[in-house]
Amino acid sequence: xVSDRQRIDVTRQDRVTVVSFRDDMDLTDEAEAYLAxxxxxxxxxxxxxxxxLAGLAFADSTTLNVILRAYNDHQAVxxxxxxxxxxxxxxxxxxxxxxAGDALEMADNRAAxxxxxxxxxxxxxxxxxxxxxxx
Length: 135
Description:
Blueprint: E1 8-13, E2 16-24, H1 30-41, E3 49-58, H2 61-76, E4 81-84, H3 89-98, H4 100-103, E5 106-107, H5 110-130
Parallel strand pairs: 2-3, 3-4, 4-5
Antiparallel strand pairs: 1-2
Helix pairs in contact: 1-2
């Protein structure tokens, strides 16, 4: 069933894939959210992924699971993955009580998140340049 309101947007900004979650996310949005983040991970036209949660009013453990899976998937590539706010109280509380905020790259707003993605990409580039190929 297609929702009458779009809760997930995917755009590009400053060479970064920006996935935005809005309104309330729950179990019914899990597959669409994961597909959007997986697609962002594979976007070769950009250098990283920013998950913009400024418009997200409510998230539960299902949404958190999608975010953590996407973070791990991005780390395996490796590709920068940063979350940005400002975070609504219910969303901030979810990260706080689960401790997930300590494990994820988080920024206070979109501009700071974009800067952080670029910083991480620069670090990855310099790490890869200094690591000899294992051939």
